[in-house]
Specification:
Number of strands: 12
Strand content: 15-25%
Radius of gyration: 23 Å
Structural class: alpha/beta
Strand order of the largest sheet: 7-8-12-11-10-9
Shape: elongated
Distance between the termini: 13 Å
Amino acid sequence: MEEKSITPHSPRHAIDSSMKRRGSSRDYRQRGWYMITLVVKGRRPLLGNVIGDPAVQYGEPEYPRLSPSPLGEAVQEQILGLPSFYPQVSIEGFQLMPDHLHLLLSVKEEMPKPLGLVIRGFVQGCNKAYRRLVEPLAGTEGGASASASPSGGSAASFHGLPLRACALQAQGASLAPQRRPEGQRLRYEGGLLFEHGFNDRILTHRGQLRIWRHYLADNPRRLLMKRCHPDLFRIQRNLEAAGMTFSAIGNRFLLDRPLFQVQCSRSLTAEQIEAQKRKALAACAEGVVLISPAISPGERAIMRAAFEAGAAEIVLLENGFTDLAKPGGARFDACSRGQLLLLAPWEHHNDRRVIQRGQCLQLNEMARRLCER
């Protein structure tokens, strides 16, 4: 039987991929809610250390959190002081991380300046604190090794450790400033703490604010989980399987197990979908891994039921991964358990797209070929 050719999807009008593009139709002076993300230049872990135990429940004393460095404390002061310069802006929440910052802002009334200029003023205040507090280490460009972990050691020191031991190792060296000889000139990353530009997300629907608040609170725990299971969260490019190439996040060993394709026509009745669900769950009980792009309502219902039952799954995605991508929500914890593998055959795009019928057919064909390899 002749193999069908699987070719990447090429959008008719390619859009430049950037997580820092502004919304072209958005007036950033108007009222609204925003989640702003700023990244430390060079991803240096200058803002503090994540401490705590990722195995404990939210609200318990040892739940993961960031212990800020002196620079992190100075950045916090800039955050809390922002409304005194811009009374139209309210700080609704924030989360410092070793190498980045999330801000949850509410613009309560129309501002004379767009939000970008407000963030620029905030960043300038942070730059002053950076130049005042951070002394470059000997032989480095910007005060800390770009490859250092927030604990002061390498990320490899966390490989294979139990959760509690991993969390304890996250409590490491202080980033306290050092005194310098009088008149000595320092070398900074151009005097800039954060990378140029920022990512903004705009509140658009009910329930989104609750998701944002949870995401901010859960960031430290997610970081510790990634350190404890680095191989499960590392993006693998050019993963070859059944003559096809994918980018992957998750447990790649799931491809070595027997696979069961979940594919449901939209014309199936509820009874037919329920019958397929029973068949899929029975296969899971025998150790089979479900695989599907989970596009149609029936496919989503079956994959969701199996996922909630703890079954292992492979999900084919229309959108690829950025270099710093990680699964969201329940998929993140499923990855840490080795329960999930995400496969993307195509490049990442930032713009919202409605999946095309041709892509659906290609993804289902990929699932079939992986099952029959």
